[in-house]
Amino acid sequence: MGRAEKVILAYSGGVDTSVCIPYLKAEWGVKEVITLAADLGQGEDLNPIKEKALTAGASTSLVEDGVERFVREFAFPAIQANALYENRYPLSTALARPLIAQMLVEAAAKHGADAVAHGCTGKGNDQVRFDVSIMALNPDLKILAPAREWGMSREDAIAYGERFGIEAPVKKSSPYSIDQNLLGRSIEAGALEDPMVEPPEEVYSMTCSIEETPDKAEYIDIGFEKGIPVSVNGIKYEPVALIETLNEQIGHHGFGRIDMIENRVVGIKSREIYEAPALLALILAHRDLESLTLTADVTQYKRGIEDTYSQLIYRGLWYSPLKQALEGFIQQTQERVTGTVRLKLFKGNAMIVGRQSENSLYASDLATYGSEDEFDHKAAEGFIYIWGLPTKVWSKFTQS
Fold this sequence. Notes:
Number of strands: 14
Radius of gyration: 25 Å
CATH superfamily of the largest domain: Argininosuccinate synthetase, chain A, domain 2
Largest sheet: 5 strands, parallel
Strand content: 15-25%
Structural class: alpha/beta
Shape: elongated
CATH topology of the largest domain: Argininosuccinate synthetase, chain A, domain 2
Number of domains: 2
């Protein structure tokens, strides 16, 4: 590990990251700990967190706004890539990690720190995402992960913190582990560790239960420019406001819940619950608009790229050479992805019911079965003969 003099600690205000402050100083000889809390739209006042860090022994407590950056530089590229890990999870939590790592590295440079630290355990995905991203951004920085090594239970950690004046949580803690940002929430642990147990309604906050959703369907039009969402129902929105608006509208109809068995980076399966109404709907709408504006071969080839891209994000390789190379391909495909997609929201569903684009490749005179049909039906016979010839030859020689 090597000794560190000054450390930038990714700070959430929870028990583990609070205990990390005195632990780094008392057990590992760190002289100065500077905490950094990233505001990524989690919807809470971070000032109490700032004060808590100072009380726990931090020399400086930084609170930095990264919401706009989060949407423009991380969420929008993921939407353009239709990024769904295992074709289900829109990476709402995973996308935040490379940005937090970037903020840690920037703070280390600004404050002259020789190390960065986080409170991740050795069992989850986030340790991989933080460590690999930090290595990519500054391979000379030391990376400290006390919670990966101290071997303390939650009760032990609370007791350790009390020795240094860190107050124990006054209320009974939730049995669930929850991470939240503007793009969504991830919920795990507690009763959810039994894959057969239905998630109780209390775990959700961004989406309504089906019983509480409106009895009347709502239609919304989402406008895209070069693959980036820019408007809702014809009204232009700034990036953060657009996500906030769609989270509220779509979540109100109960869409955006995911319950899945997920394959973690470290090789174990975990049961994960996600809420990501806006992000999930935007990916579905964007993918549909691509079907209207891209050629068949590009659309079909891009699906494989999207799967690889999603796995890279999930596995902490946002800053890898392969991800950067794939980004170049994806951006090239987005030049024509401009238009509007209409969603019908009703009882937990977001159904695509319409789409239009100035770059549409849909030719009505070729698609129609009416009198306007200009497709040359006579050409089909020759096409089918040539197309099927290899199969015919194979069949003739293998069945004779």
